[in-house]
Amino acid sequence: MITGSACWSTALQRGMTERVIDGRTFYTFAEMPETIYDVLAQAAAAHPGSIAIVDDDGTSYTFARLLELTDGMAAYLAHRYGVGEGDRVGMLLGASIEFCAIYFACSKIGAVVVPFSTKYREKEIVQLLIHAELKVLLTDAHDARRAGEAIHAVDTVELCDPSLEGFRFAGALEPLPAPTRAGGLASPAVMMYTSGTTSMSKAVVLTNLNVVHAALVYQRLMGTTEFDRTVIPVPIYHVTGLIALLTQFVYAGACIYLHRRFDARRLLECVHDENITYLHASPTAFEKLLPLRDEFPELPSLRALLSGSSYEPVPKMRAFHAWLPACAFQVVYGLTETASPALLFPFDSPTSIYAGATGKPFPGVEACIVDDEGNEVETGVVGELLLRGSCITPGYFNCEKTALNADGWLATGDMGYADALGMVWVVDRKKDMINRGGEKVWCSCLEETLCALSGVCEACVAGIPDELYGEVPVAAIVPEPDADLTEEGIIAAMRERVAGFEVPEHVIFADYIPQTVGDKPNRAAVRAAVLEQKGMIAR
User: Fold this and answer.
1) What pLDDT digit, counting tens, does each position of 120-158 carry?
2) For the chain, how many helices (H) and strands (E)?
């Protein structure tokens, strides 16, 4: 077992101790905000006139104004809809001041906020809206149209008023009696659906402890201060946007720019013009920035880049180091079930001897790697990664499947190994591992090798059925501009670099790698594309 507190210096863990919360012992902060709302209230008290949010349209909101809008929204939800402790309030909204205020407002009255992906279409989201058992759904006309008839699965829906300037929920601007504050560290605060297919999505319940600990431990290890500035370039309704960025930066009293949609050039213009210091995004988002490096040769304000959500190839990290040598590039690993943070690479990854490793457990997190029987494996042996600790969900909502085993461990479904110093390498999703005639092929490792080939911009590996071996690896590749790549050439190059059983059986070329709604490579789509292009029938 790897204990996060043993992996980091005591200076980074000052004020952290074991605490008993709701009958369980957690390693967390001795003094911390009791709720997500308290995170904002404390920041507004300390930095009332500082800019907290710059909305997508450029409107700035101070911490004092954000707190005022939050208090108004909390009063409106309690007065208009009778929302109280334990009720679930749905949000079908993109990154906006309304999203931020509703998030903190629900916490003030002890309600559970349920952010939904605005990428889903009608048939995808309807079952989630039914499952969530919402008291009210808050949305806008654009996202309501995208969801179509699905929003009628909720009895009470309110659309914001597009005619209003600034904050678009008029009820929050009315003078109403202040509601009773509710909730504590053990109270459920956020419910988020996992990013698998909607038929398999689970509603992850996160407590105030989970979210607040996650935000504080990010701030502590990343050294975030009131002088930092960030952009949220990922969906704000996922754990990275909601907790690793929004909640952390509000806690630090720092400034956040909101972009409703990802635009690589606009993002880099914002970094350059607004002196952004900190970017946390997905490998896909970072990949889209690299082609623009010649237009933005210097971004001197940037000090930290964090990449999460899926595997970040080392060649890409080294390309960022060549572009921005004074800026640290770190890898972070987490799940919806971990409120974002689980493992963090403690150094600048592209210049480290450990480049390619995933990281060490955050303080407050324990990690264990086990075999198929649940027994801990030896150092260096691949097994399934288990996690437990202060930011780990206590369970799922309305689900027969339990999140944690009897000892409090969360089975991540990810395969990895560790060294004697607690450094963990996550090599693949358990379900994505390819078993070629008894030999294990790890997709992310194979993608790493493919991306190192000259002319390869991106790569995604998947398994397809094979009569002789059961399944074999195949790959989809995005070539660099003007690269002269062939399937035969890629296969020949791979034969010189990997074991014979790892060489892709087929290679196809594509303009882009398809992504899931969670910004992860869509291996199922790659598998289907290979089968279609090669004239094979999926079995």
Assistant:
1) 888 889 999 999 999 999 999 988 888 888 999 999 999
2) 14, 28
How far apart are the C-alpha atoms of 364 and 343, rounded to whole Å?
A: 11
| In the predicted structure, residue 71 carries a pLDDT above the cut 60 | yes
Beta strands in 233-359 (DSSP E): 255-258, 278-281, 304-307, 328-333, 343-344
With cut-offs at 50, 70 and 90, classify the pLDDT of residue 435: confident
Chain center to CA of 91:
18
pLDDT surpassing 60 at residue 39: yes
What is d(CA 442, CA 432) in angstroms, rounded to the nearest whole number?
A: 8
Q: Please determine, for residue 106, whether its predicted confidence score (pLDDT) is greater than 70.
A: yes
Say what the alpha-carbon torsion angle 93, 94, 98, 102 is, to the nearest 10 degrees.
60
- Cα three-residue angle 362-366-370, rounded to 5 degrees: 130
**Radius of gyration, alpha carbons of the chain:** 23
Nearest Cα neighbor of 533 from 487, 479, 500, 490 is 487
Inter-residue contact 390 to 209 (CB < 8 Å): yes
pTM value? 0.88
Spatial contact of 502 and 446, defined as CB atoms under 8 Å apart: yes
CA–CA gap between residue 246 and residue 256 (Å, rounded): 7
- Residues contacting 485, CB < 8 A, separation 6+: 455, 456, 477, 479, 509
- 355-412 per-position pLDDT tens digit: 999 999 999 999 999 998 999 999 999 999 999 999 999 999 999 889 899 899 999 9
Q: Which has more confidence, 137 or 438?
A: 137
Measured CA to CA in angstroms, residue 155 lies from 81, 135, 138 at distances of 12, 8, 12
Contacts of 511 (CB under 8 A, 6+ apart): 478
What DSSP character marks residue 12? G
In this structure, of 85-99, 223-237, 500-514, the range with the lowest mean pLDDT score is 500-514
Q: What amino acid occupies position 109?
A: I
User: Residue 45 and residue 42: Cα distance in Å, rounded?
Assistant: 5
pLDDT band at 198 (very low <50, low <70, confident <90, very high): very low
377 neighbors 383 (Cβ within 8 angstroms): yes
Q: Note the residue count of the chain.
A: 539
Residue 206's contacts (CB-CB under 8 Å, 6 or more residues apart) are 188, 189, 190, 191, 192, 339, 393
Stretch 32-55: mean pLDDT: 98
- SS3 string, 300-336, reads CCCCEEEECCCCCCHHHHHHHHHHCCCCEEEEEECCH
Instruction: Write phi, then psi, for 283 (nearest 5 degrees).
Output: -55, -35
